[in-house]
Structure formats: C-alpha cells, structure tokens
Amino acid sequence: MRVLIDYRPALRERSGVGEYAHQLVRALLHRPTSAGSNGGLDLSLFSSSWKDRLSLPPDVAGARAIDRRLPVGMLNFAWHRLQWPPAETVTQQEFDVTHSLHPLMMPAARAAQVITIHDLHFLANPERTHSEIRRDYPALVHQHSRRADRVIVISQFTAMEVERQLGVPSERITVCRPGAPDWAPRTATPANGYVLFLGTLEARKNVGGLLDAYEKLVNARQRVPELVLAGKETAAAQPWLDRLSHAPLAGHVRHIGYVQPADRLALYDGARLLVLPSFDEGFGMPVLEAMTRGVPVVAANRGALPEVLGDAGPLVDPDDSDALAGAIQRIIEDEALAAACAANGVLRSRQFTWELSAQHALDAYRQAIDAHRH
To answer: Which residue in 240, 172, 160, 244 sits closest to 200, CA to CA?
Structure first.
C-alpha cells in the first residue's frame, strides 16, 4: 500500500496536530507485523516550504521524504480552493492513498483521499482562528468531508460532531485516538511543584479564565504554587501576558513559551498538577501525557476532555472560575485525592496506544481504497 502523508504540521514546532502527525507516522513505521517487516506499507512524507527543508527525525527515517520548494500559502490556496495540482503531479509519483492531517483534502488524480478532522471549533468560533484556517476551513469543510473517501477523527466526541454538523455518515468515519507516550509513572511528586498549563495560548484554551481562577487562589491563600504557562503565544495572548507583570499575579505566574517535545517529560515531572480549562478540545494531548506520568489533572467538562480523563480527575465548567479555583485547591491541599487521581490516571492512560492508532489508520486507508474503487 503506497501512502502519502502531509507531514507539514510537524515541520516546525510539534504541538497539537504536528505531534499527532509525527507520532502516527512513527507508529505506522514501527508497528509489529507477523512478517517482522513493514507489512507492505510504502510510506512517503510530503513537505513544502520556500525556506524550511524537510529533515526527518531518526524515529521516522524509515519513510521516504518528498520535499518541494513551494510557498506554503500558495500551494494551500491552490489545493484548498482549486483542488489542483494533484499530489501525483507535485511529487511525480503514484500512490494508493493521500492523507491530509487537517480537514481539507490533499488533491489526487487517482489515489483515494483521507482527511483528519481534529475538531470543529473553527465552525462555531471562526473569530478564534487565524489565516488560512479562518479563510478556508469554515467555507470548505462541508464539501471536502463529503468528497473524501474516508474521514479520520481523533475522538468519539469529534466523530459525533462530524456526523451531526457535517452530515458525514458514521460508516465513513474512523476514530483514531492518539496514544500515550512511552513514559513510566514518576516515583515521587515534587513537594514544591508548580501548577502546569500546557498548550498554545489561544482563545479556546481559556487562559483568561485560568488566570481569573488563579487570582482568586492568590488572594485567598498565603502560599500558592507557581502557575507555569507553557505554550506558544498567539496574537490573542498579549492581554493575558500583560496581567503577569501586575498584582496580584506578578511573581505567581510565569510564561515559558513553546516547549520542545524532548523537554516535555521534565516539564511534567516538575508539576504538582496539570490544568486544562479549554472551552473545546478535539482530544487534549496534555491530559493523556500528564496521566501517563502520574500527574493529577483538572480539566474542563467540554469537548473530548471528559472522554480522555474519565473519572481520573475533576471536570469543571470552564466558565466558572470559582469552580476551577476550587478544583485546583483541592488537588493542592488533599494529598490523598492527588495520589488517587494520579494512580487512576496512570491506569486510564494505558487504554491509549499508538499501536492501536496505527492499526485504525491502516484500516481507514484500506476502506478508503475500497470506497474509491467503487
């Protein structure tokens, strides 16, 4: 099976879609097979950029790299709006499947086409998105999702939203959830650990609501652990970052920017707990990563977060800063509760494996090929 995956989301900073793309490719390449080989998978990774060249990390070096010096914006406009030029023309190769890691197809002349929809937040809240996502996704996702031979989603929640909002029948949707990292649970919780938020500083992550909750904690307690905001800032982040230099948050909250994948384990190890108060999430990778390492989690009761966290930690209304502050405080003060959440999280994380993700992706590719032939 000849598969072409759009690897561009993982070309620079691997957060969210980029991390999912990289780990799925890694799992496809390293999955166990009865023959002890790649099981007939011929995997190519596509990238295009005017200035950034594709250099595959060692753990995905078994794939073929196809790198074209084409401006991303120009190619995306042609692909999204015109469905041209086909992947076969751009790459000068033939494929059985093209797989786009976002909701708009990588066009193909002969190959079956698969798309991945991580969430549909851009439909209800286009103002919280930017550039090509705002321009193209809301206008084109209905058309592309109906024309794709298979739609992959990353959670059951997103599957139901794709069926409800886009009208894609459930029999054309494959749930391919992310897997947990291969980390062992940590052996101790740091006594002076910080409260961690990990994610891009954008509107749907509810950073403002988290700062409101933390301000309540700072005003109510003599001592409160430091809050660390780890993630790339966006244009929407400036008002939140401005608050960090003024009372009462000054000296209590720190923004450290984007964290490289290789540094995330150490980041979790220094945390008392993770807080993810998002208004919407298609999955919520930091929740799964934290659970894997045995870090207690407080999350919003929105999107796919309840599906990921289950009963392993408190779920709160992201619009209720008092409830969010109370959940954080309980984990900080109640060591038995924190230990129970950590232990339950480790057990729950074992339900999510990249091996299973790879198998579901391969199933989706085969189903797409069959649908395309008929």
So the answer is: 240
